[in-house]
Structure prediction request, 68 residues.
Amino acid sequence: MAVLIRVFVANNYLDKKTNDETFYININSKQLQEIFKEVLQGVKGICLDREELIVCLYIKSEKLESLN
Prediction:
């Protein structure tokens, strides 16, 4: 017997003024949401349409100074 659990739902949004398309992934699992919140903290965007994964981070200047 197989059990199907919907972990996430992918949606896209088309801005009618600019024709920019934005994709959103809604994560239904509360446990997975908590994991992603911790792992992706500070991530502004992820580019998946290239051979290598690109992750854009947003780091406040105070955090940058503490890293040095």
Remarks:
- Residues 8-67 form one domain.
